[in-house]
Amino acid sequence: MPGGAGHHPGGLSAQGQRCRAAGRVTSCVSRYSPTVFIPSWGIQDSVLAECRELGRRGHQVVIFAPHATAHDYKLMGLARAEADVGTNVEVRRLFSLPVPSSTGQSRLLVPTGRRWRQLLPFAPDIIHTHTFLGAGLEALSAARHLDVPVVGTNHWAIGEFCGYTPFSAPFFRDVSLRAVTRFYNHCAMVTAPSHSVTDEMCAFGLSRPYRVISNPVDTDRFRPQTDARRAVLKRAYGFSQSTIVYAGRLADEKKNRCVDSFAASD
């Protein structure tokens, strides 16, 4: 699917990392697991942190995300309300369908190729997609119709998800990586949070400029405590002196072997 962003590689590289130098930004956000964009998951938290900071700096941001149902919020134990996105940031929900997943709340945005019309009054300078799925296809369509560059961020080591398919691991890895790389070759700039992701895409023919950029971290919330404070917290929660805290899900693609080994040796 051709992307209009290919006309702007020079202009985009001058923007610096991702889309932080843009005056007006559209961020198209979606992924399989989870896709509901409520503030409790890694990629979604990263997108929220990035958009809040852009808004704080005076940029105008529109986030397109799949529609979330009451069931999705109930699973998370949250009131049905949008996340606090801060100033100058708007969330627009698009029609989506439920898909099976380990979380039980994944949804896939159904692309129509016509939602770019919603952006005509907004007139974005840059479109930023965090997915190669439904919202990503909408992002490419919007970039082509509005003649603006699109930044594509690939958060997935897609070849590691072979365990969720009925296909052999080599077949799934080859087909999925070729498809994902073909998608990102329509972007003016590609980013990923780790070298392993860009290395995989390069091996399968990535031809667009790319850069490894870590996901943002809220350092007000996540910061080292003093030794004295850590000792107090360990006593309060009944933790031993040597404690490992892991906040991700236990899944093969997360490479949890070191956590599993630690738990088994306890």
From TrEMBL:
Enzyme Commission number(s) of this protein: 2.4.-.-
GO molecular function, one term: glycosyltransferase activity
Pfam family for this entry, one: Glyco_transf_4
Signal peptide start-end: none
Domain of life: Bacteria
SUPFAM superfamilies: UDP-Glycosyltransferase/glycogen phosphorylase
Positions of the Glycosyltransferase subfamily 4-like N-terminal domain: 42-221
Keywords: Glycosyltransferase, Transferase
Enzyme class: transferase
Database matches in PANTHER family: SULFOQUINOVOSYL TRANSFERASE SQD2
Protein name per the record: Glycosyltransferase
